[in-house]
Design brief:
Blueprint: E1 4-9, H1 30-37, E2 40-43, H2 53-62, E3 68-71, H3 75-80, H4 87-99, E4 107-110, H5 117-134, E5 140-143, H6 152-160, E6 164-165, E7 167-170, H7 177-185, E8 192-199, H8 216-231, E9 235-240, H9 248-259
Parallel strand pairs: 1-2, 1-9, 2-3, 4-5, 5-6, 7-8, 8-9
Helix pairs in contact: 8-9
Amino acid sequence: MGSIRIGTSSWLFDGWRGVFYPDKLPKTEYLSFYATQFPTVEVNTSFYALPAPATLINWVETVPAGFTFALKFPRAISHDKKLSSVSEETFELLDARRSLGPAAAPACLQLPPNFTRKSYGKPLALYLDWLATQAQDLRIAVEVRAADLMTPAFADYLAERGFALALIERKGAPDMYPVWLELVAAGKAPPFAFIRWIGDDRNGPEGDRELQTPRDAELATWAERLAELAGHGLDVYGYVHNPYEGHSPATVRRLQGLLSEHVDLAPWPPGGEVPGQLSLL
């Protein structure tokens, strides 16, 4: 049975003060409080700039052992340079990912909607083939939003190179779960799965303080899916964005409750654990 870790996309929301964070909690203590509630978080800030080594050290020393951070590839790699001439930036990301050690969840390479196979197929293939040789020891998920990359053929291509196709629930995006599950069942997928619940990020709920658009049926389906993936021995990582239901901490708790009907979730935080230590490579 694989593990299941669910969290939110960032912990840096001031709007959560009073509804998730205590009213008078300093912002410098958001992470330490967050890490008492959930076992993982997506680091959205790394999309804009990689954290400094001292910041990574502080993060890991702030959270309990077993907590994990999912770094996003910087936009300079995926959006600005479109995967061309980005070896230096990629090595920096891989170094940061490795330096987190056991505190690292899979890193996520997110490609923009205009990054299509038709327009960028060659640089995409060249980059992923190269990345597979540089990151054999790492877990990496790839998120695509172009229709001509949301295909069984591309999912198989990623799996062959040890990458996971990021499974996204987002308005307008096809459901790629059945495609990925087929690879999992056939023993062709890597031993982890990566899910992001986004919802309607253009016209969805405004604000981030309360549940506004309950998705009961979708969450029930995903609880079954997460249990199914874990049942295949995969370590499952999932991250909820505020637009999905309006307040991602509430969604995580709702999903955890539904999951408990299918699997025994490990207690969090682990009893008696102390903040971990980080040695940078």
